[in-house]
Amino acid sequence: MGKSPASPFLPWLKDRNLPTGYQISDADACWDNDYSRSHQEPRTPEPSSPQNTISDQNYLINFQRGWFLQAPNIQPVRYRNAMMDSDNPDRGDDNIIDMRWIVQRELGGSNIFFHEVTIPPGKVEGTHQHIGTEELYYITEGEGIAYMRVGDDPATDKYPTVERQVMGLGKREFKELPVKSGSIIFTKSGGMHGIRNPGTQPLKFVAFLYHTI
To answer: What is the rounded CA–CA span in Å between residue 207 and residue 213?
Structure first.
């Protein structure tokens, strides 16, 4: 977003990026290059390597109107102990999950992506809270346990309640939800979720995340 037009009704919009909210300096007001933007790219198989985070400094702008992609042809970026604090009991040097970043900058937003996640047997993606974003998980393969905070969906009240450590927030109570191919976890801004693979086969799902205001 470039410099917002002045408005007597929405003066706070002037010179501010939406939805991230950072202030655009006077020097950059004529062209907002979204200086904080980055994307994920498999430069190295080393889990959680900073080499895989590519600083863009701008939006992807082209005139392509469509993409035909084959997910298996996209190499994954690997992450160790994703969404976990250093004292999380689920952490381990071998707790590594793979993410194929299928569509990122092509979507045009400053924080929006569509990717495929593979959680190997016995591994975990830590529970975490979404603030300012919404995310949809659609399970495509395998079986596992998803975690949704107690009260986020009243329809889950019948499922077992367990205590889980939330990244940056300490312990909270969650509903333990059995998931398999066709299961959907939808988390709104303010909601919490995580997922575990206690089985013997890979657990796969596609995730779609986007900003909300």
So the answer is: 19
Supply the DSSP symbol for 5.
P
Distance separating alpha carbons of residues 82 and 84, to the nearest angstrom: 6
Mean pLDDT estimate for the chain: 85
- Asked if residues 203 and 185 have their Cβ atoms less than 8 Å apart, the reply is no
8, part of any domain: no
**What's the average model confidence in pLDDT over 103-132?**
89
CA 18/CA 146 separation, integer angstroms: 31
The pTM assigned to this predicted structure is 0.80
CATH value at residue 168: 2.60.120.10
Q: Identify the domain containing residue 149 by its residue range.
A: 64-211
pLDDT band at 55 (very low <50, low <70, confident <90, very high): confident
DSSP, collapsed to helix, strand or coil, labels residue 154 as helix
Query: How high is the pLDDT of residue 112?
Result: 82
